[in-house]
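Structure first, sequence second, as always.
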């Protein structure tokens, strides 16, 4: 089932075309701010009319002089045209100012959509290497100053340029089809040269990325304090700077080649434009000399030709951004439209979920297999397991045995490639994601605290059950620390975000996270190394309270210390994704199998650790703990 996430760039390109993306873009704009949407089109009208009046102005002056009218007859039309231009330009400026003010806010719409989606997509996608590119590209597109931001100006500018070019092209073509053909010929050559320059840009830019990665990596390592020790002690400074300069030199050389191609295109375009303008002046001059047009018309058509050329150039400049903008919007849409493997509606129902929370739950795995993307061998292989309601199960195994993967499968973070997972005899697929995950509470080793209050971090709610919260805090020995905080439960966490906040030590954070796991009304609780950051006294206190904490719950306990799993009803030893031994602590020791061998090895490790502590104390030295957990730490 995990193979469903493989999405290729070719599919993405076929799915979203230019027209489709433009429609999507304006739909998003309208949903964000309908006035901004209307301004995107309203701006075109005054801009186009003001430009046309600007071309009409000198022709009107020449016409008035040709007719030898009075000062009023000559200047009156000029004043009217100038006043019209002033009003139209002011209107266009007001619309444009509002539009671009809203552009920054509009970008927040995409940032918000990205954030809402990224916390909602199936967890497995976050670890999928193929999907990571889609996610990262979508985020890059939505960030300030990137392609979606540029789309706000480029799309409306392109529409304005196209409308102006078509309007002036019709006026120009009605007088001289030859001039129009010459203009289009110049445009075609310009587009071809632009295409060549962009092709070479892509070719060299691909090579730049190689050196840019090297330059970025060296910069990151130079700012890393851990790498800084090696750089200084092993006298690597000169060598690293030489490598850094080499990368910059290569980048500069490649950018120079890109610049040369664009320079060639610009010089060629200038020659073409000169030839095109010269042809237009000669033809219009010929028409004037033959009496086909008046002097006023000559000035008017010269202005129209100039505006037509500028409009086409404006279109070309914006076309340069269109491919990048189209790709960015495509990436964002592909990310946004990612479907979940979970059912969206239906499920087992609120009444059933509430009934399940009232008593311990049954968990069953039937022939479950899971393979990570890119791996040939499955991490979990045809595993079957039934945990009865209220049972305390210990899950142990060496590093790489598959414990973490199995926990993620049980939690619904991964979907099995083969087999079934059932809660209370109902398949995972029968639940919605919210229903399924509401029945499971987990204490992970790598949990995260948010810059919220202590109470909010524990409960995840705006309003909470104070009695249930107090019980959870007391069961894990965090009640005393909780009451000693400056504002008790209202104390903010994560000092990096807020200066008045507090940060906890590893053991304190572990206690808070355990309280969070207990506070949730989940009939299945999974504890992944709950004592990893605790001192022996706190660890012993936890074991004494676990019975009360797990009352009316089914629990799975993962630990690297085999001796700490004695309180469990059953112990499962996992190796290479398979269950190889099952039983109680005493029963497995008596059997003399793999568990007994590992237990003896680990017991010796802790005995040696105690001897080292005693020797350090006798010598007055500070004792440094060995790697936590030894051979069983994961």
């Amino acid at each position: 089932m995990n193979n469903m996430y493989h999405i290729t760039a070719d599919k993405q390109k076929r799915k979203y075309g230019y027209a489709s993306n433009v429609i999507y873009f304006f739909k998003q704009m309208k949903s964000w701010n309908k006035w901004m949407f209307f301004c995107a089109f309203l701006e075109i009208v005054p801009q186009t009319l003001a430009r046309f009046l600007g071309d009409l102005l000198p022709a009107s002056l020449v016409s008035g002089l040709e007719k030898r009218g009075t000062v009023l007859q000559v200047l009156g039309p000029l004043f009217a045209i100038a006043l019209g231009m002033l009003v139209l330009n002011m209107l266009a400026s007001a619309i444009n100012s509002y539009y671009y003010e809203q552009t920054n806010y509009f970008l927040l719409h995409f940032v918000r959509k990205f954030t809402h989606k990224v916390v909602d997509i199936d967890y497995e996608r976050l670890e999928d290497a193929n999907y990571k590119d889609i996610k990262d590209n979508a985020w890059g597109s939505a960030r300030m100053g990137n392609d979606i931001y540029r789309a706000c100006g480029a799309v409306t500018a392109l529409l304005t340029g196209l409308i102006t070019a078509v309007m002036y092209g019709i006026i120009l073509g009605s007088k001289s089809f030859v001039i129009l053909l010459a203009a289009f010929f110049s445009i075609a050559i310009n587009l071809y040269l632009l295409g060549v320059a962009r092709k070479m840009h892509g070719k060299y830019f691909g090579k730049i990325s190689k050196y840019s990665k090297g330059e970025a990596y060296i910069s990151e390592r130079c700012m890393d304090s851990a790498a800084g020790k090696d750089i200084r002690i092993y006298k690597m400074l000169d060598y690293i700077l030489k490598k850094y300069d080499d990368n910059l030199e290569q980048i500069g050389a490649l950018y120079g080649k890109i610049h040369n191609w664009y320079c060639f295109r610009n010089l060629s375009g200038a020659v073409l434009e000169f030839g095109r303008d010269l042809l237009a002046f000669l033809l219009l001059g010929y028409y004037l000399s033959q009496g086909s047009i008046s002097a006023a018309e000559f000035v008017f058509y010269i202005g129209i030709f100039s505006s037509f050329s500028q409009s086409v150039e404006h279109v070309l400049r914006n076309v340069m951004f269109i491919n990048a903008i189209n790709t960015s919007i495509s990436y964002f849409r592909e990310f946004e439209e990612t479907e979940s493997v979970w059912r969206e509606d239906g499920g087992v129902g609120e009444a059933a979920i509430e009934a399940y929370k009232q008593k311990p739950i049954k968990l069953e795995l039937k022939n479950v297999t899971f393979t990570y993307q890119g791996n040939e061998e499955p991490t979990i292989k045809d595993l079957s397991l039934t945990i009865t309601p209220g049972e305390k199960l210990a899950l142990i195994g060496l590093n790489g045995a598959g414990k973490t993967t199995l926990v993620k499968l049980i939690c619904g973070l991964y979907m099995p490639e083969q087999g079934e997972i059932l809660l209370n005899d109902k398949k995972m697929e029968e639940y919605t994601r919210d229903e399924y995950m509401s029945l499971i509470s987990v204490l992970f080793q790598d949990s995260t605290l948010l810059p919220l209050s202590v109470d909010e971090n524990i409960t995840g709610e705006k309003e909470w059950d104070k009695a249930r919260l107090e019980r959870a805090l007391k069961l894990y020995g965090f009640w005393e620390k909780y009451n000693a905080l400056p504002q008790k439960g209202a104390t903010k966490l994560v000092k990096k975000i807020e200066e008045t906040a507090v940060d906890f030590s590893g053991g304190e954070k572990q206690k808070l996270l355990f309280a969070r796991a207990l506070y949730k009304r989940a009939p299945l609780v999974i504890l992944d190394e709950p004592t990893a950051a605790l001192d022996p006294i706190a660890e012993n206190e936890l074991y004494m309270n676990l019975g009360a904490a797990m009352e009316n719950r089914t629990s799975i306990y993962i630990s690297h210390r085999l001796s700490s799993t004695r309180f469990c009803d059953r112990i499962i030893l996992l190796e290479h994704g398979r269950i190889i031994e099952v039983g109680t602590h005493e029963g497995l020791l008596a059997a003399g199998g793999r568990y007994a061998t590992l237990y003896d090895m680990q017991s010796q490790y802790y005995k040696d650790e105690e001897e080292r502590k005693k020797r350090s104390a006798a010598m007055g030295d500070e004792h440094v703990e060995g790697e936590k957990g030894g051979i069983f730490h994961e």
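Margin note: The mean pLDDT is 83.
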